[in-house]
Every structure is written in structure tokens, then in C-alpha cells.
Amino acid sequence: MNQQANSATAAPEEAAQYLTVNLGNEEYGVDILAVREIRGWTPVTRIPQAPGYVLGVLNLRGAIVPVLDLRLRFGLAREEYTATTVTVIVMVNGRQFGVVVDAVSDVVEVAPGDVRPVPDMGTTVDTEYLKGLTSVAERMVLLLDVDRLLQPQDAQMLEAALASSDVKAVA
Amino acid sequence: MSKVDLAQFHKAFYEESLDGLDAMEQALLALDEGAEDPELINVVFRAAHSIKGGAATFGFTDVAAFTHVAENLMDEVRSGRRPMAKAVVELLLRSGDTVRDMLSLSMAGQPAATAESQALLAELSAMVSGHAAAPVVAVAKAAAAAEAIEGWDIAFRPFDYLLKSGNDPARMFRELEALGPLAVTCDASKLPALADMDAESSYLGWTLSLDAGAKRAAVEGVFDWVDGDCDLTVTPRIAAPAPVAEVAAAAAAPVAAAAPRAVRDPAANSESSSVRVGIEKIDTLINLVGELVITQSMLSQFNDGVDASQLEMLRHGLAQLGRHTRELQESVMSIRMLPISTVFNRFPRLVRDLAQKLDKKVVLDMRGETTELDKTVLEKIGDPLVHLVRNAIDHGLEMPDKRVAAGKGDTGTLRLEAFHRGGSIVVEVADNGAGLNREAIVAKAIQRGIITTGEGMSDEAVSDLIFEAGFSTAAATTDLSGRGVGMDVVRRNVMDLGGTVAIRSVQGSGTTFTITLPLTLAIIDGLTAAVGDEIYIVPLVSIIESVQVKPDTVRSVAGGGELFRFRDNWMPIVRLFDVFGCAGQRRAVDEGIVIVVEGEGTRIGLFVDELIGQQQAVVKSLEANYRRVTGISGATILADGSVALIADVTGLVRMQARRKAA
Predict the structure, then answer these.
(1) Which of chain B's residues have a Cβ under 8 Å away from the Cβ of A57?
(2) Reported ipTM
(3) Taking CB atoms and an 8 Å limit, are B579 and A161 in contact across chains?
(4) Any idea what the CATH number is for the domain that residue A130 is in?
């Protein structure tokens, strides 16, 4: 938890831009530098043995990109996908994945000084995926730690899966 | 002036030299068979010459000195002073091997001169006749003579066209300077008036004085490239005669001198593979991209909307776009395709050496060398082919007297052929030898406990036994085959490439190995199958056949498993629906199809709802953005743009085996 607070305060001096997305009544900010593209919801191909929040994979101009539902990731109730449902494609550590949210709303500028650590509060969201919160025009925006969305449990799961199978190392 | 880091060219030099050595070897083998084409001799000469020049430029003095002597030997043959005798060919073939070793040593930053190369150098020098090759022999002998040289006086006057040949005196002087302190005096006496001067001609001469006890080979090596394009005299300044004891030390000197230069560049060792692409392939690509740009600009006029009158034009543009995209895809794929001759080329030599060693007479018949294969497939098919060829000569073809006794010609034929069949490449290794000995194989298999009896086994099944691990019928393990990798490894290598091996053998008249390989690993042929509401692709290479199963041939076993009877064998049914946790309706066993697949020699039945069709699938990685999924080897994109997953048959077989064990 301390680490996240540190990374929030150690951010560069200039204001960072965030794309805000809606999830129910809450507003989340995604670092705009990680956002590759915003596209309408399209059906995906389910993948076996995936955690529930990973909806499947989609074809992004020839690349196979996994898509996760942010609601399911945060343990919220599943919503029907509608015309405003969007998939935000983000790129983190050279990997692309899609995040399904209810809607995108805005791009906001947040000065590093305005980012406060996340209190252990009553949000439905596990604070592990947040790197801070800020307020924009009276609205509270929770800043997402995109790096962690498809990490680290998945990485652990992967290792566990590899360790349990007797599959030889990939050449 | 900053020194150009020559090390960046080492890799290119190395690759080119290897190509040159291959060309040389081929020409020598053709000469060995009695071809009398002067062009062949020229090919050998040119190869030796370019390697010498390159090696000297890059400071691989040992290689340069060695090839210099080989080149001189060839020069004698070329000018008709020496016949192309068997002994010469033999020696040059061995020299080629040695140069190859020396080059790889040099590239690894190690001293290139070995005891072996020195011995061969002596042999070569001995063969080169006396005075005709005087300078060369002098170089070689000077290296061994251990003169105590204080320095060198060099008079160098290039002919006026030297600059046009791309040589730069300044570069050569820098190279000399690397050997020791250098004093340069320029003689500009022949410089014409400015008005008469041709800027591209050389009018200058130089007198150089090098204060270092460098070797003559090193000093003269600097001028290798301008040999014949200048007046050059190199005179040593000798102090006192050296004691004979220094001979050994002096001989070791060039080795020490070469080593640090090669070590300097660690990048030379890094394995970055590259593809040489024919210029016409690149031109085709550029043309296609040009066409694509034109089409794009044509389509861009519809940015503001289309009215009905333009529909035809739009349709035309889209059709064109589609065609160009397809062509572009094909062209790009073809860049990875290389002719199989890159693998076949090693066989003439291999066959010649093997036949000589075994006292057998073998004619190699190679066909379809221009057949193109994916580079990754090519790299991995070499070893299995070498093994098959060795096996064929060692065990397949008989000794000449035995052949005659069997009513055949004393010379055996080994056929190596590559051709297209369907969407695959077929490589055949065929000999007209004795064929597989059924009795010996059965006896051996029983002895090894692989089978209990050979009775009732088809010839095909018996032949397949030689692919079992640890199987070899050779009575005595020879130096050639029967050690290291066996036929099981051949089969595994081929299967790793998504291919298959089959044997056809007729006792008394020969054996044919047929390797079937996919054209490329990037595209597979697959069967699309529906499972629940989803679609999966099963690679065609692993499919044996698809059958509809009657309920009365299916047995349930404890733990929820199912077995079904297929050709007198009970085989487990793997329901993809359950393994992949599909959405939709689970079907009863008689409402679907069982695809019998084989992975790692084990057969299982994959149960799917229905077969949709066959299609080529471009394999995409799931791991690039996600992670590996057990039972899935990758994904592909269907015609409607959606993603379908490709079943990993080997993985499914393993899963099944684990479940059985659990």
C-alpha cells in the first residue's frame, strides 16, 4: 500500500492526463499514455481456463488481444452490454489488453499534488488496483493502476500452472 | 580521422566466406567427377581469392595466409601449369574444411592457426611448384624463417586507376600504422598541372618506413587488394641473424597477433540470424506497396461519402485492395522461403566421403533443389536428412560385390528429391539397396521387448518399428550410423515441425523414406469444428480420420471417462466441450463426430459436435498479449474477423495421460 502512495507522489512534476471511464456511479481514471484505442463493444472469443473476469480474446488488426470486464474484475454485478459499452485497449509493458467499461466520459488533467492516497474505504473496489484518488470539478475520480489489472495474480497463476504441468520448457 | 570499426562487417564476411566455401566445394566435387569446365576452376579460384582478400582486410592473417597458398595452387591449375588431379581436388576439399574451421575460430575470437591447419598449409605449400608461386611460398617460409627484422622500407606507387578500384591508400597506411610507428613520405613529382588533372586518378607515390619487426605476411597483407595495381617493393631492415631457437616463437606470433583483434568484438558471436533475399523479391514487394498506395489514394476520395453513381468505382477499388493485400501477403511470406538446395548442398560431399570410407559405390541423384521451404523448417530438417542419408549408405546400400551377386549394378543410387504435394513439401530419401530386413527387425523388436511376436504384422507395421526408441539393426555399431540420434529422433524432429515420416521398403530393391512437411509454420491446414456455441480448429497433420460413433461401441469407465472401439482398439474419447468448458448444449456421443488424432504416438478421439470445413489458418500467438493455455496452441482469425482457437493435440494427449494417471 505504501508503495502505491509513493508511486503517486513520485510522479513527474507535470500534470498527467487521465481518461475517465464510468463503472456504475463511480468514475475511474486511466493513464492516457497507456490507452491505445477506444472501441465499441464487440463479442469476443472465450478462452478456456481463464479467470471469470477475462471475457475472451478479440482480433485487433491481426493481434490476438485478451479482454477483461472491469466490473467483474472489481467484483461488481455484471451489466448487459449496450450501445455505450466500450472496450478501452491499453498497452502495458508491451502487452495489449482490452478493458470493458460502461462508458468513457472525459479526459482530465491531474497535477501530481492533487493525487491523494486511497483510504481504506467502503468502495466496492479492492484498493489494490488503485494508485490514488483525486477530485475533478467536485467529482471523485479513482485512478487505476493499469499495470496490475491483468497482473500479478495472473502471473502467479501462470507460474503455478506451469509448475503443475509437466510440460517441458518452451523451446 | 575516426577509425571505421571493421568488426561490424565480420558477420557479413563470415557468411559470404561460407557461401564461397560451399560454392568451392560444389565445383570441386563436379571436377572430381571428371567435369572439364574451366568455369568450375574459376569458381574455386575466385572463392579462395575473395576469402583471402576479406580475411586480410579484417585482420584474420592466418586465414589470409592459408587461402593465399590455396589460391596459388588453383592459379597454377587455372593457367594450365598443373592438371586438376584427384590429389589436388582432395587437398583442396580438405583445405576448404580447414578454412571453415579457421573462420569459425576467428569469429569466436580464438587463434585460427591450429596444428592441423599448419600441417595442411605445409602440404599445400609443398604441392605448389617452386618458383612459379615464389612470392607466396616466400611469405609462408618467411613466417617460419624467424628473421630478426627491425623494420620495413616500402616503396609504393599505385597505377593511376587505383582509386577507381575502390582502394584507398590512406586506409592501407592506417593499417600499417597499426603494426608499428610509420613514417610516410609522399612523392608528388608526377602530379600534373591542375588543369590537366583527372580527379579520379592517382598521381602520387609514397615511401614508407615502418619501425616494427612485423612479419612480411602482415606487411604485404596490407597491399593484398592492390596486388597488380601498383609498383610495390617491400624490403626488410635486418639487424642481426636470429638464433634458430626462435622459430617456434615466431611461428606462434601471428596467432597472438590475430587473437586480440578478433576478441575485440563480442557482437560477432551473438546469434542473430538473417535471411538473404533475392533482389527480385524485394522489387515485387516495392511494386505491390506502390500499387497499394495508389489504391488507397483512389479509395480516399470516398472519405466524404459515396453517391450511387460511384458505387461501381468503390466496388472496383475494394476488389483491387483485396487482390493487392493477398499478393502482398504472399510476397512477404515468400521472403521467409528459401530453396531446399541450401540443405541439399551438403550432401554431395557427405555422400562422396561416406562412400569412400565404406568402399561402396554411390551415385547421388538430387532433384527439386529449387523447392522452397520456410527458413525455420529448413534449419531443422538438415539433421534428420543427414541421418537418413547416412543410414541409407551405411545400412541400405550393399557392398559392390554383394550388389553384383544380387544381379544389380555395382553402383548404388541414392535419390534425394523434394517436391510439392498439396499444401505440403515432400522430401524423399530413396536407395536401391537391400531394403529393410523384416526378419531382423522383428527379431530385434522381440529382443528389445517392443513386441512379443511378429506374426500377423503388416510390412508397414514392421517398418514402423525402426522408429521406436533405441532401435538399431546394424549388427556392429559403425562409426557412421548407429550412434547418437536414431530413427526415433528423426521422427520426433519431423513431428516437431508438424510433419510426418513414412517408410516404403521392398526387400532386395530398396527403401524410400518420405518426409512430409508443412510449407510454413505460420500457416496450418486445419479442420474447423463446432463445439457447443464455439468453434475450434484441429490441425490437419495430426488427424488420422473422423468417425461417427455408434452408442454401442462406447463404454463408460469409472471416473467418468469414455472409451470407444476404433479398429479393434479401445481409445479414450476426449470431449472438447468438457475440456474447454464450452458454452451451449452438451451432446450425446452419437450426435457428434469423433476426430481421431495422434500426438506423440498416442491416439485419442476428440469429440466435437460437428465438422464445419477445412481451411488454412494463419497461426497467431496467444502468449504475445495473454498467456499460454493448456490444450490450445494458438489462435487464428476466421473469415468474419472473429477469433478461433487452435487445439493443441499434443497438449490434449498429455492432459488425457495425466488424467488417466491421476
Answers:
(1) 622, 626, 635, 643
(2) 0.78
(3) no
(4) 2.40.50.180
Interior angle at CA B40, CA B39 and CA B44, nearest 5: 115
Residues in chain A with CB shorter than 8 Å from the CB of B621 are: 64
β-sheet bridge partners, residue B543 = B597
The alpha-carbon gap from A48 to the nearest alpha carbon of chain B, in Å, equals 5
Domain membership of residue A2 (yes or no) is no
Where do the domains of chain B lie? Answer: 6-127, 140-258, 280-335, 339-518, 523-661
Check residue A123 and report its DSSP letter: -
A57, A96, A165 member nearest B635 (Cβ): A57
| C-alpha cell read off for B525 | 491446414
Its domain, for residue A103, covers: 10-170
Pick the CATH number of B523-661 from 3.40.190.170, 3.40.50.300, 2.40.50.180, 1.10.1040.10: 2.40.50.180
* Record: fold of B140-258: Alpha-Beta Plaits (3.30.70)
> Which residues lie below 8 Å from residue B231, measured CB to CB, with a gap of 6+?
B155, B156, B157, B159
- A 138-157 residues with CB < 8 A to B: 154
Is residue B544 classed as helix, strand or coil in its secondary structure?
strand
pTM for the full predicted model = 0.49
Any domain includes A4:
no
- Read off φ and ψ for residue B461, nearest 5 degrees: -65, -35
A55: number of CA atoms within 13 Å, CB side?
A: 22
Q: How many Å from the N-terminal Cα to the C-terminal Cα in chain B? A: 72
Look at residues B647, B626, B644, B623 and name the one whose alpha carbon lies nearest to residue B635.
Answer: B644
The dihedral through the CA atoms of B195, B196, B201, B203 has a sign that is negative
The fold for domain B6-127 equals Four Helix Bundle (Hemerythrin (Met), subunit A) (1.20.120)
Residue A113 domain-assigned?
A: yes
Please give the average pLDDT of every successive group of 10 residues along chain B, which has 662 residues.
Answer: 64 82 84 76 83 81 83 80 79 85 81 79 76 40 49 80 74 78 79 77 80 73 74 70 41 39 36 71 90 88 80 86 84 83 87 87 90 83 87 85 87 90 83 82 77 76 74 50 60 80 84 83 84 91 88 81 84 90 81 87 88 86 82 88 89 82 64
CATH of domain B339-518: 3.30.565.10
How many independent structural domains does chain A possess? 1
Is residue B100 less than 8 Å (CB to CB) from chain A?
no
Residues linked to residue B511 through DSSP beta bridges, in sequence order: B431, B505
